[in-house]
Amino acid sequence: MKPVSLKKVSVVALACFAGTFLVNAKEPVELAKSNAADKAKSTFSQLLKKADANKNGELSKDELEGAMESQLLSAFNEIDTNGDKSINEEEFTAYVGNTAKI
């Protein structure tokens, strides 16, 4: 299997990370809708605390890219289960599957 690019991994990792805060598949649709806005606000608040370098209450593209890269790099060793310093499709799929279960 060929290695997956860092950008592709970071996009999917961020989507999985954000998705875990927005909707829990076990909740009824009505409850999910009522909680989605609160969860989105909470997620945005957490992102601001971690990534808003100039503390203006907004995330620039550069700040968000930096946060994504930092998040991915911190998880890289966890994703790279065979320790070969690259992420293959099998490792990535296993990581995304485990993240979705949380």
From TrEMBL:
Gene Ontology MF annotations: calcium ion binding
Pfam families: EF-hand_5
Highest taxon listed in the record's lineage: Bacteria
Transmembrane segments: none
Position of the signal peptide: 1-25
Residue stretches making up the EF-hand domain: 67-102
PROSITE patterns linked to this entry: EF_HAND_1 (PS00018), EF_HAND_2 (PS50222)
Assigned keywords, A-Z: Signal
Descriptive protein name: EF-hand domain-containing protein
